[in-house]
Write a structure and sequence with these properties.
It is a single chain. This protein has helices at 2-15, 26-30, 44-53, 56-70, 87-93, 101-115, 192-195, 197-215, 237-250, 281-296, 314-345, 362-373, 380-386, and strands at residues 74-78, 81-83, 117-125, 128-135, 140-144, 150-157, 160-165, 175-179, 223-226, 267-270, 349-353, 397-398, 404-405. With 406 residues, it is of the alpha+beta class. It has a three-stranded antiparallel beta sheet with strand order 2-1-11. Strands 4-3-8 form a three-stranded antiparallel beta sheet. The chain has a three-stranded antiparallel beta sheet with strand order 5-6-7, with no helix packed on it. 23% of the residues are buried.
């Protein structure tokens, strides 16, 4: 029986269903969820409300990364040759009638930083991509296939849903899904806001504390001590309610800050003050702000957070921000776009970005050009290759004195 089963399996593999390369672990992942949407495992609305809309540090980090990444100019290569004009350039510059290219990518990067996931939709018409649209990540659900990879995406809004089949027969799949690394989820990325959620709560709570303190004349309240004429220590119920009402109406809030307190007989005001230990919430707020900036890879110096002396000056912190946070994100996006759109515009096309036009890195580029210019043992074309430019005709010779010449 065993030999018969083995022979049947071999015959089926040779002449039956064609063999397809795929991961051996994919079917295990998709076993219990094949064909069904996988919901985003977090509350996107709460994250965006508390970490972006309600937190100045989170808001500024997202805006800095999204605006900086979207401002980087694109380059296009076919093989090793740079292309100056191409339909793909036109698509990226004007992806749809309602958005410019920079606006679309700013929105795309913003979604990625807030949700950990970002989606682009390609509109295919007669085998060519005519438009690109950014889709909100909180409305998108991944539909895994039998091999564990997404076979479709479902987008829901206003009670209706649209299903995008990834194997639609078009040269370009309808959805590009870019996600941040998540070690515990097979389909969705991990938002920096989720990693910094505790710090965001601390920062927001400290801000609420400061607001309440300002509403109470920027100092903690005191105590009213009552001593009656006959030695009584307690007010009557009516006296207590009237005193409480007068304090709330006439002495609380910023409009009544500094107003003299009028006391009746037997009442004595005992002011209270905060100890240095109680004032540590201010430093806790700054520490929470630094941790939020750390989750996003933004140097705290760029955000004006006090107490951070990691960098010698602002320019050095700005260069680190571009090198460690912005450019890796742009490079990853360029690679994803090249792979995604290659079926419609050419498999040999490759997107890059123009570092020379980034003002924050101009000092680095000048230093590199100076070093290359002083390298007398390199030819003109070797120098051009070192700084990212193509060769020139006749630029591969060295002079008799070892100096490069065209």
């Amino acid at each position: 029986m065993r030999n018969w089963l083995e022979a049947l399996g071999q015959a089926w593999g040779r002449g039956g269903v064609p063999e397809v390369k795929r991961s051996a672990t994919g079917p295990i992942i998709a076993l219990h969820i094949s064909g069904r949407p996988v919901w985003t495992p977090r509350n996107y609305q709460a994250l965006s409300r508390e970490g972006f809309s309600g937190n100045a540090v989170g808001y500024r980090c997202v805006r800095m990364i999204a605006e900086a990444a979207a401002s980087v100019p694109w380059l296009l290569y076919e093989g090793e040759a740079e292309i100056a004009e191409h339909p793909l350039f036109d698509l990226l510059m004007r992806p749809n009638p309602g958005m410019s290219g920079q606006t679309m990518f700013e929105t795309f990067y913003g979604h990625l930083q807030v949700a950990g996931n970002a989606y682009l939709e390609a509109v295919n018409v007669a085998g060519s991509v005519r438009e690109l649209h950014v889709l909100r990540p909180d409305r998108m659900k991944v539909v895994p296939g039998k091999d564990g990879w997404p076979e479709a995406y479902e987008y829901s809004a206003n009670g209706a849903a649209v299903r995008f089949e990834q194997q639609s027969g078009e040269p370009v799949a309808p959805i590009l899904h870019l996600r941040l690394f998540n070690p515990t989820d097979d389909h969705y990325g991990l938002s920096p806001l989720e990693a910094a959620a505790s710090s965001i709560d601390i920062h927001n709570s400290a801000a609420a504390w400061n607001k309440a303190l300002l509403d109470n004349a920027a100092r903690p309240s005191g105590a009213l001590v009552y001593t009656g004429a006959g030695g009584e220590a307690n007010l009557s119920e009516d006296q207590f309610e009237r005193l409480k009402r007068e304090l709330e109406d006439s002495y609380q809030g910023k409009a009544n800050a500094g107003r003299p307190l009028v006391l009746e007989g037997g009442l004595d005001w005992k002011p209270l003050s905060m100890s240095p230990k109680e004032m540590e919430h201010i430093e806790a707020k700054h520490e929470a702000a630094r941790e939020i900036a750390l989750a996003y890879g933004v140097p705290p110096m760029l955000l004006g957070i006090p107490g951070d002396n990691t960098f010698a000056n602002y320019a050095e912190a700005n260069r680190t921000f571009w090198r460690q946070s912005v450019l890796p994100l742009v490079a990853r996006t360029a690679e994803a776009l090249s792979q995604w759109l290659g079926g419609a515009f050419g498999e040999n096309l490759r997107l890059g970005y123009d570092v020379d036009r980034i003002e924050a890195l101009s000092q680095e580029r000048e230093a590199l050009w100076s070093r290359i210019e002083r390298a007398r043992f390199l030819t003109i074309n070797e120098k051009r290759a070192a700084v990212g430019y193509g060769p020139l005709a006749g630029g591969d010779r060295l002079g008799d004195d070892g100096v490069a010449e065209a």
